[in-house]
Design a protein that fits this description.
Layout: H1 3-9, H2 17-26, E1 29-33, E2 38-40, E3 48-54, E4 57-62, E5 68-74, E6 93-96, E7 100-106, H3 107-116, H4 118-144, H5 147-164, E8 172-174, H6 179-186, H7 190-202, E9 206-209, E10 212-215, H8 218-224, H9 235-244
Helix pairs in contact: 3-4, 5-7, 5-8, 6-7
């Protein structure tokens, strides 16, 4: 059940069989939720740490006019904010983007792991630091890059993260996001998103069919999107991708 989590954490540490078993036993409940279901709303009191087992979810903020802005994605193996239950209220909302399977972990169990399993604690801190680094990169991406480059950068990130979650097949991975959701992520209108996707297709860097994104030219897309995967801190995944995607697919 925790395979996606241990696969992700393996980028930081190697967990023993006993440590994996302890993580498994930390889960108190597993729930299935449909698409567009709220996991937690802003201002609600957090109660559990949420571990995504299957599907996609997102963190988002709601503006005064009702418009949403997506501030992060959750893929299999990702945890909701590890220390959220220390706070009195959520400062953002979390909802599903696809049907998901979600595991619930009590905060006191996380505290126990910190005290008694330093290797797990290190891995969980690594996960939090990667989340923070990703948010910083998103701020730069939205504030400093043109529309089509923003989207190219996001697609590069999604390939690396999907690979880490075990979701890729050759050069392809699921892309369940609508153009509106891509716009809410990158600060672009649907018109700009559509135009940017068309440009990336015309330049033969990507294909997007039936909610599956295929990277046709990894090196070009990285260069065009000004993408440096260092902030994701997954050198093992980078090494796996490099020989597979180093040349254009014919």
């Amino acid at each position: 059940m925790i395979d996606a989590l241990t696969l992700k954490l393996s980028n930081s540490v190697s967990l023993t069989g006993d440590e994996k078993n302890v993580l498994q036993k930390s889960i108190t409940k597993v729930v299935d939720l449909g698409k567009q279901a709220n996991i937690k709303r802003e201002d609600e009191k957090p109660d559990f740490i949420h571990l995504l087992l299957e599907g996609w979810a997102c963190r988002y903020k709601t503006l005064e006019n009702g418009k949403e802005h997506i501030v992060g994605f959750l893929l299999p193996g990702d945890l909701s904010t590890l220390h959220a239950t220390i706070l009195e209220r959520m400062d953002h909302s979390i909802r599903t983007l696809t049907p998901v399977k979600l595991a619930l972990i009590p905060q006191e169990r996380i505290n126990y792991l910190y005290l008694h399993y330093p290797n797990i604690a290190r891995a969980l801190f690594w996960s939090t630091l990667v989340d923070e680094a990703t948010l910083r990169e998103w701020l730069v991406n939205q504030g400093s890059r043109p529309a089509v480059i923003r989207l190219a950068h996001l697609f590069c990130e999604m390939l690396v993260r999907s690979r880490a979650a075990g979701l890729t097949e050759n050069h392809s991975f699921p892309m369940p996001l609508t153009q509106e959701e891509l716009g809410n992520t990158t600060g672009l209108t649907k018109v700009h998103v559509n135009r940017s996707i068309r440009q990336l297709r015309m330049q033969e860097m990507i294909e997007l069919n039936h909610r599956t994104l295929t990277i046709l030219d990894w090196e070009r897309l990285q260069e065009f999107g000004e993408f440096d995967a260092t902030y994701l801190h997954m050198p093992r995944i980078e090494a796996q991708l490099a020989p597979q995607l180093s040349r254009k697919i014919s």
